[in-house]
Amino acid sequence: MRVQTFAAGPIATNAFLVIDDATNEAVIFDAPPDSLDVLTTAVHDENAQVTLLVITHHHWDHIGDGAALAEALNVPVAAHPASLPFLEHPAGGGMPITPINVDRLLNEGDSVEIGSIKFEVLHTPGHAPGEITLYSAENKAMFGGDTLFPNGYGRTDIPGASEEETLATLRRLLALPDDVIVYPGHGLPTTIGAERRWMERMTRGMR
After folding, report:
1. For the chain, is the Cβ count within 10 Å smaller at the N or the C terminus?
2. Which of the following CATH numbers is that of domain 2-203: 3.30.70.380, 3.40.50.720, 3.60.15.10, 3.40.50.11550?
3. Helix, strand, coil shares of the chain as percentages rounded to 5?
4. What pLDDT shows up at residue 205?
């Protein structure tokens, strides 16, 4: 599995191009503003066959180029059902965002297969009601947008966010192995092990 990271847009939001070594099939996670050109160039340079664009959640900084990217690559878009209203009527960031047509709904427990890579869909709300994380146990990697950062997580003081749901999500992520690589929506990759101590402190006392 090859992972390329592209930080784009006014707040350096990460998009990820993940390529299966065996087949060159690929998936893209999120499409921030100003990511269209760098992503399409990378796909061309890698001769990758992108089969899906996954939107981890609906916030403007993760979807600004979503519609344009889906059209340019002629690729279906996948998202959680709770994100649909916000993708159909996107807003935020002080910029116009083209509505995104979702072709595939991803619910808790679903699987996404990209060549030989298999991802399990985890519904990880808190920062956004429709936030999802795609987890590959074999590759020890997770892509979850703003679910988990190095030393933190996505804001919970914005509409639709929930501190209680965030804590429940963090407690769930503690069940993953320490060596799972976390590819976050902002910043550098980390691991579950590197974040475990503060996550345990945050969730202590939860049943």
Report:
1. C
2. 3.60.15.10
3. 25, 25, 45
4. 67
